[in-house]
C-alpha cells in the first residue's frame, strides 16, 4: 500500500509539473504520455481485474451532499422542465452507434437500476458520501449497439459556464465499468437541482469534475480532437485539469 501511494503521488506530481512547461508540441506529447502512464498505472494496480471504487453503508451517508460548479442551469427551457418535474426531459444517445436512442425519464427509470453508496472526491479538497441510483451506462450503450472504432464517450450537459457548454468524457473501459451509472436519485430521492437534476453521470473511480450534471446527450466517438477544445472536458480545455483523474 505504501508503494502504491508513492507511485500515485509521484505520477500526480509529475503531471502537475508538466502543466508549467508550456504549450509546445513536445509538451503536448509529454503530457499525453504521462497521462496515459497514470491511467495505465491506476488500472494495473488492480492486477488485471475490474477494480471497484469503495462502497459504504447508509449509516455512513454524509448529512449534506453539497453542490458545486453549476448549481442550476438557469435557462427558460430548464426552468420549464423543472416546473413540470422533468417528465419530458430527453437524453439522446448517438454517434458511433447502430441504434440511436432518445430516452425520457420514464424510459430511464424503466431500465434495470443499480444503487451504490460511494464517496465523491472533489478537486477542491472536500468529500461526501452519497447513495446513487440509476441505470448502468453499459446497459444504455448495449441497447444503442456501439460500433467498431468507438474509443470514447462524451457527455454533453445543459449548463453553461462562462459562455461555454459543460461537457466531459471517458474511455470505453470506464463507460462499461459496472459502477458507471446515469443517476437520477440521490439518497433515495429524486436528484436535487444543485446536484444536477434530473440526470448526472457517476464515474466512481475518478474525481468529481468527471461526473457531469444536467445530462442531455451522450455521444460515442472515435476521437476527442473535434469536441469543443479537444482535450476531453470543460476543465481540461480551460484550466489544465488532467483528462484521466483516477482516485
Written description of the protein model:
Mean pLDDT is 86; it is low at 1-34. It is globular and about 45 Å long. Helix 1 (2-18) packs antiparallel against helix 2 (25-44). Strand 5 (152-161) and strand 6 (164-171) form a beta hairpin. The protein has helices at residues 2-18, 25-44, 76-83, 105-110, 137-144, 172-175, 234-239, and strands at residues 90-95, 101-104, 114-121, 127-134, 152-161, 164-171, 181-183, 185-186, 189-190, 200-202, 215-221. The strands form 3 sheets. A 5-stranded mixed beta sheet has the order 2-1-11-5-6. The protein has a 4-stranded antiparallel beta sheet with strand order 3-4-8-9, with no helix packed on it. It is α+β, with helices and mostly antiparallel strands and 247 residues long. The protein has 7 helices and 11 strands.
Task: List the main descriptive attributes of the protein structure presented here.
five-stranded mixed β-sheet; 7 helices; 247 residues
- Return Rg in Å: 18 Å
Helix content: 25-40%
Shape: globular
Residue runs with pLDDT of under 50 for 5 or more positions: 1-34
Cα distance, first to last residue?
14 Å
Q: Output the structural class.
A: alpha+beta
Order of helices and strands: HHHEEHEEHEEHEEEEEH
- Tell me what portion of residues adopts beta-strand conformation: 15-25%
**Quick check: average pLDDT?**
86
Oligomer: single chain
Beta-strand segment tally? 11
Task: Provide the spatial order of strands within the biggest beta sheet.
Answer: 2-1-11-5-6
- How many distinct helices? 7
Biggest pleated-sheet summary: 5 strands, mixed
Amino acid at each position: 500500500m505504501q508503494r502504491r501511494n508513492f507511485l500515485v503521488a509521484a505520477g500526480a506530481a509529475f503531471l502537475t509539473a508538466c502543466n508549467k512547461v508550456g504549450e509546445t508540441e513536445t509538451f503536448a506529447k509529454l503530457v499525453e504520455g504521462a497521462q496515459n502512464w497514470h491511467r495505465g498505472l491506476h488500472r494495473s494496480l488492480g492486477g488485471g481485474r475490474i477494480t471497484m471504487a469503495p462502497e459504504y453503508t447508509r449509516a455512513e451517508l454524509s448529512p449534506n451532499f453539497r453542490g458545486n460548479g453549476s448549481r442550476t442551469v438557469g435557462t427558460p427551457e430548464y426552468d420549464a422542465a423543472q416546473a413540470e418535474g422533468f417528465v419530458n426531459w430527453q437524453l439522446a444517445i448517438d454517434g458511433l452507434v447502430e441504434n440511436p436512442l432518445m430516452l425520457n425519464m420514464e424510459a430511464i427509470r424503466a431500465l434495470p437500476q443499480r444503487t451504490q453508496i460511494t464517496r465523491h472526491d472533489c478537486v477542491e479538497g472536500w468529500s461526501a458520501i452519497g447513495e446513487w441510483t440509476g441505470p448502468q451506462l453499459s446497459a444504455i450503450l448495449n441497447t444503442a449497439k456501439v460500433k467498431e472504432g468507438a474509443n470514447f464517450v462524451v457527455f454533453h450537459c445543459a449548463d453553461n459556464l462562462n459562455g461555454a457548454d459543460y461537457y466531459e468524457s471517458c474511455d470505453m473501459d470506464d463507460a462499461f465499468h459496472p459502477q458507471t451509472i446515469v443517476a437520477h436519485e440521490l439518497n433515495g430521492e429524486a436528484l436535487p437541482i444543485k446536484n444536477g437534476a434530473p440526470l448526472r453521470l457517476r464515474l466512481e473511480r475518478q474525481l468529481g469534475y468527471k461526473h457531469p450534471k444536467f445530462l442531455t446527450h451522450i455521444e460515442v466517438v472515435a476521437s476527442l480532437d473535434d469536441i469543443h477544445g479537444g482535450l476531453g472536458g470543460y476543465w481540461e480545455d480551460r484550466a489544465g485539469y488532467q483528462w484521466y483523474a483516477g482516485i
